[in-house]
Every structure is written in structure tokens, then in C-alpha cells.
Description:
This protein is an alpha+beta fold. Helices cover about 50% and strands about 15% of the residues.
Amino acid sequence: MVLAILEAMGELKQAWRWLLSRPGFTAAAVLTLALGIGATTAIFSVVYGVLFRPLPYPEPERLVWAGGSMPDFADVAARARSFSGLATTASNIYAADLGGGSAVRMRGDVVTPSFFAVTGAAPELGRAFTAADERQRVAVIADRLWRGPYASDPAVVGRVLRLNGKPYTIIGVMPSALRLPSPETLVWTPLEEAIAGWPERDNRQLRIARAVGRLAPGVELAAAQGELDGVMRQLGAEHPRTNADVGMVLVPLHQAIAGQVRPALLVLLGTVALVLLIAAGNVANLMLARTVSRERELAIRLALGARRHHLARMILTESLLLALAGGALGVLFAMWGVSLLVGLSPADFPRVDEIAVDVPVLGFALAVSLAVACLFALAPIFGVLRPPLAAFLSSARTATEGRQTGRLRGALVVAQVALSLVLVTGAALLLASLVNLMSTERGYDSQNLLTFTMPPGDLAGEAGMARHQRLLERAMQRIAELPGVVAVGGANSQPPDTLQRETRFVADGRPEADADDSPWIVVTPDYFRALGARMVDGRPFRASDTDRGEPVIAVNRSLARRLAPGRSPLGMRLRLLVPGVDPVPRTIVGVVDDVKYSGLAQDGESAIFTPWAQTPWPGMYVAVRTGGEPMAPARAISQAIAGIDPTQSVMSMRSMEDVTADALVGPRFYGVMLGLFGALALVLVAIGVYGVIAYDVALRTREIGIRLALGARPRAVVAMMVRRGSLLAMAGIAIGVAGGVAATRLLAGMLYGVGVADPRVFAGAALLLLAVAVVASLGAARRATRVDPMQALRAE
């Protein structure tokens, strides 16, 4: 045992000396590996933090998530026995007065009292909700809010927090680990208190609520889903109008949090794994070239009694040292890369605060380093130690041996090119998709457009809603009178990705069984002009379209085509099947061009518009069309609204171009990441091709000298070497095209306006790789023109 340890230490010392004696080779190999391992470790940090790190709750594997309506969840909680607890929650946006005299926009959630018990989160200050708090104005705040505006004041419990103008008493502070229902949640309030007086609180069609449940001991997810299916069938029989054929799906909480980004993250992880393989191929080529140059040393060792497996172990030891050095440097690159990735990630990226280079990630980096070392050591071990001893002792390598090693190094380059084509094609597809998203027709004009939100205040009772209506009407009128304002309008939704709700509707005279679903947007009269949405038929809403006038409705172009193919839908009448809204027939008076409310990638989505005066909605997104710089009237708008009601908040005042740019952050993030990896792959391919051609030039010095001595032109010699590099690239491209067609199918859900097998993209990627290979070959082949024929022949 001791002898084995001493022998291993001796081999390590010898390998270290050999690497230090060749600083150029060692630096190139370590840097190449560091780039590959660093990129892989950085992406794995994100993947592990988001997808694989256990949630910070007791027994997180027993937590489940579901979507539905509040009445349905109440029935499920009363009837199902598969849960030890089930809590209902719904999101809200508050205008929060933290004591500074002005309101700030704050994400909050209304929850049933059992919410904190179900998650297992215990307050770090004060207490959580109890059943007695169900209808009280009390609030529990998040650790971030406590440590920020409240400066970690331990006396925060008992203070009053004003939300939408209503006073709430703070009773507790939750730890930073609680990130539910959203990482942006800063305050929780009782659900029953929040929805008291809502006309839609008992609406089973309004499926805007979510529930978090904890499975009872011994109950598996499949069994809970089976019981839930039975409860939903009962509700379908009891409420056929709203619950017929309506189900509810349980998903693990971890999947609900990170499920949307899972495919994209796995694509990035697979992408960076290809980069690592390309880097390993480069180092394998370097090792193979360096080992071939050591043939006489290896031959002498064999002649003196060394066994081939001892020499293989020596090469493997050198590879391990290179890989560990590259891995250590790669971890430093990964730390910088993680900071970059977190900074570039979209605002709604899940669990972003849990991404770090920690012990599991360092273990991954070590495992990757060891695996890569074994991988790139295979080529020199099998490529050089296979020939017989006589071949090593000869004064020159035979043509057969040269061809064997050349074929092996060429095969590595072919593999690199093939993998690079997959990467470059995927990056090109995502970037083309991003360009399409940026240029897609959105249905509105974002230039010279200012937008902000006006959340409702206290809406208790009919007087509260009437007061809110009067405030909005006066605010619109006052803003329209400001200098530089061309038009002003409001809606309950905002493009390109904020849709408040959908509704069911049916053509007048048809049974409710024929009802269809559509997004429903409530707008003020001048909204379409302010937004820059084009009327393609009929008229926009007017100030005369009040609750005392004829009920009217407008539809978008896509819905008009469905309702009246080949003709105008004007004059048709539709009924809205919404509890709390009069189901009177509403006459279609206008057709609006399609405006994207559910995302820039959504084409052909239907939409229904109703006048705000006929279907009031609490809170509005206000659009202000200006004659120039969109933010110029911002201060005057805030002052005008404060002059009407000093307690009314104005939140999220931004230009519409900024709002639209935010919708592109996600696609831009993934496109840029894949683009960077594609560029890195191109660099590595260029290095690989250059190395192969340069080594060929070195091996063929005598042949090149003879050719030049016999009158061959340097240009012909360069063309010969470039031809070899081009043939290697074309072989890799041929293989890569087949692999790329299969691999890019994984990107199908991330693309817009471009197919996964778009021939233009594949052709462009292939030409780019071929050009890179030709340039790299040309750079290496020019060394052949500097060969002195007489010196080459004399050396032989």
C-alpha cells in the first residue's frame, strides 16, 4: 500500500515537471479546458439551483400546486381526505404607503389562514394568520420588506401598513425562505377580507386562484389526483353550467415553480455539454500531437522494461493534472459567469436567489474535470501506444503510422465540427426567432406612448365602486387637458403580456352549450386611439356608450373572422356569460386590429372589448399618447391625479417601449446564451483545425521541401493543406446536419416565425463553419510556404 502511494506520488511529480517544462502546451490546454468546464459549471449552477435544489420547506416533496376557482377549492378542501392541509391564494397588486407620503407598487397575495401551516413556514417575528383573522385587516410581511423600508425594526409588529388606501395591522414577518406564491410577494393578507363584497367571489368560472396543498402521510400524488378527479366529477354534476367537464390537476410544487423554464434550462445544459466535448476534443488533439513528439522517450521506456499500461497511466496522470488545473480555473470563470447569468436573467426567473457556486456545484465541477481527463486521454493512449516497439525506435515514423495518427486527429476535428454545427444552428434559430419577435406586428404603436397603473382604493360597497369610477373619469379628463397629450385611455389589461381575464360568450339566440372562450378587455372610449390600435371596421367606443345607452361590444380581427367568415360581423349580437355582468345582447359596433395581450408569440388570438362605462372594472392600465418624448408629461400627470385625490397612487409609470422591451428579456436571454456558446464553439473549432493543419505541415516538412525543390508553387502547397482542412469541415458538416435536425426539435417551443429545420439557417451555419475552417487552415498552411527546401532536405 505504501509502495503504491509512493509510486503514485512519484508519477504525479514527474507529470507535473513534464507539464511545467512545456508552458505553451500546458497553458493552451488548461485555458481550453477552463473555458469548457467553466461554462458547463456556470450553467449547471443555474440548473441545479432552479430545478434540482430541494425547496426550503419541511418535506417539500409532499407539497402540491393546483389552479382553479375559489369556490371549487373550498369544496375540495371540505371533501378531499388526501391532504393534511389545503390553502387557497390569489395574487394582487397593491399601492402601498410605507410612511413616506407616496405609494409604491407592491406584489401581494391574499391567502386562507392555513397557508403558512401548509407550507410549514414559521414567522421570524410575530405570528401567522389564525381562523380569527379571516375577515380582519391584518398583514404578514416578507423578510425583504422588513429589512428594507422598515430597516429590520423589531417593533414593526403592530404598525399600520396602508394598502390601496386601507389600513392593515402588521402581525408578523416571514423568513426569506418563504417565496410563495411568488418570489415577488412582499405581503400576505387574509383572502376572505380581500374578496368581501366582490360580485365574483362565488364565480366558479373565474379560475384565477391557486392552491398549495400538503399530501397526508402515506398518500401518493397519484392517489390524491384520483380522489380529486372524483370530487371534480361530483362538482360537475352539482354545477353543470360551470363545472361540466372541468378538472383540476395536481403538480408537485417544485414543478409548478420551475416547470416553465425547465425545457430551456435543459437545452442550455445540453448545449454547454457540447461545448465541453469540443474543448475536450481540442485538448485530445494537443495531447496526441505532444505524445507523438515523445515517441523516442516512450520507446526507450519500453525498451528499458516499462509496460504499456504504465505508460498509459503516465499519460492519464498528466491528463488528470491538466483537467484539475483547468477545472480550478474553470470554477473561477463559473463564479463570474453565474453573476453574469443572474444579471441577465428575466425578472420573473424562478429561484434566482438560490443560484450559487456551492458544494454540490463544486462536486459537479470535480466530476466533470475527472471525466474530461479520462475522455481526452483516450486518443493519445490508443493512438500512440498501439504501434509495436520497433516503430518507436525507427528514425522516422512510417507512412502507415502517420496516416493512423492523422486519421485519429482528423476524426476529432470532424466530431468538433459536427457538434459545433448543432450549436451554431440552434443559436441561429433562437436569434432568428428573437428578430421575428422584435419585428412582429403587435397591434399597437409603442412610440410616444406612456403607460401607468391606477390601482383601486377601498371598493367596499356600491359607494366604493362609484367613487372609483368618478375618480377615473376625472383623471382621464384632467390628463387629456395637459400640454403635449394627444389621447388618453384606460383598459383592464395591457399589451404585450398582461391579460387580466377571459370570459365565455355566445351569439344571441344560441344556447349556452354553444358558448366559446375569449380574452375580455374593458376599455375607455379613447383607448384605441391612445394605444395606436387600428379600427379595421365600424367605429370605436364613444362617450355616449354608457350604462344608459345601447349595450355595445367590439371584437378583434381574428374573432371577427371566426364569427362571420368572409363578411362583416357588425350588427351581430353577443352575450357575455359572466356572473355579475348583465347577460344582455351586445351589438358589435367595431372591429379592431389584433393586439397581443398574451405574449408577442401569440398569433391569431381572439379578443372581446366592452366599454368601461357599461362594464366597470376596478383599477386600470392607463395609456397616454404624447406628441413627443413619452415621459415628458409624467410629473404633470402625477400632480394632476394627486390634485383630484391625494390618496390615489400612480404606479409603474414607464414608456411603452420599455414595457415591450421587458417582454423580450426572456427570449433575448436564451438567444444570447446560446449565441455565446455557439461563438465559443466556433473559436474552438478554428483552434482545432489550425492545430491539425499545422501539425500536418510539421510532419510533412520533407515532402513539402521536395515539392518546392521540384518547382511546385507555394500557392499549390497552401491549397493542398487548405483542401484537407475543408474536407474535414465538410465531413463534420454532413454529420452535423443530420444531428442538428434531430437536436433542434428540442427548441420547437422556444421559436417564433422560424422552423426547427429551416434550410436557410442550416445553410448559413454550414457556410459559416466552412469559412472558419478555411481561414484556420489558411493560417496554418502559410507556414508551409516558409519551408526552405534545402534545409528540409538537409534535416532529413
